[in-house]
């Protein structure tokens, strides 16, 4: 069984609670959420990410450094270019669920409840 299909069994006294709060803190920024959304399709350079999220490469680099520190993204160097990708699917899933929750706050019938499963990401 894939570990992500299991229910969370951690209790309120879990050693992971504080670290989980740090993950939420790292993701509590609209630019970082946009970066995660942009990286869903695979690795990208800083320049491509900057264009995708509408920020300067310098600003995106600073956000990527924090995401890298939090082990949410990783790098791959190809000559002088650095490419970023998600370490695993967890940040992507957290961001997706947060966007879905935001839809509930704004829409009586959120699109992700109506869409065909293959179109769910398009609804966000």
Total DSSP helices? 7
Principal-axes shape call: globular
Q: What is the radius of gyration?
A: 16 Å
In the predicted model, the low-confidence regions spanning at least 5 consecutive residues are none
Order of helices and strands: HHEHHEEHHH
Tell me the span between the first and last alpha carbons. 29 Å
Largest sheet: 3 strands, antiparallel
The overall pLDDT average reads 86
Helix share, percent? 40-55%
Number of beta strands: 3
Question: What structural class do helix, strand and pairing data support?
Answer: mainly alpha
Spatial strand arrangement across the major sheet: 1-3-2
Kindly estimate the percentage of residues that lie in beta strands according to DSSP. Answer: 5-15%
């Amino acid at each position: 069984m894939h570990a992500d299909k299991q229910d969370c069994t951690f209790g309120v006294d879990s050693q992971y609670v504080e670290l989980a709060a740090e993950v939420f803190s790292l993701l509590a920024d609209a630019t970082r959420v946009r970066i995660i959304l942009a990286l869903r399709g695979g690795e990208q350079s800083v320049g491509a990410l900057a264009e995708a999220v509408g920020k300067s490469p310098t600003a995106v680099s600073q956000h990527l450094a924090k995401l890298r520190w939090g082990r949410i993204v990783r790098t791959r160097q190809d000559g002088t270019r650095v490419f970023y990708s998600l370490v695993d699917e967890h940040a992507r899933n957290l961001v997706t669920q947060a966007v879905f929750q935001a839809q509930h706050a704004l829409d009586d019938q959120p699109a992700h409840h109506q869409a065909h499963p293959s179109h769910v990401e398009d609804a966000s």
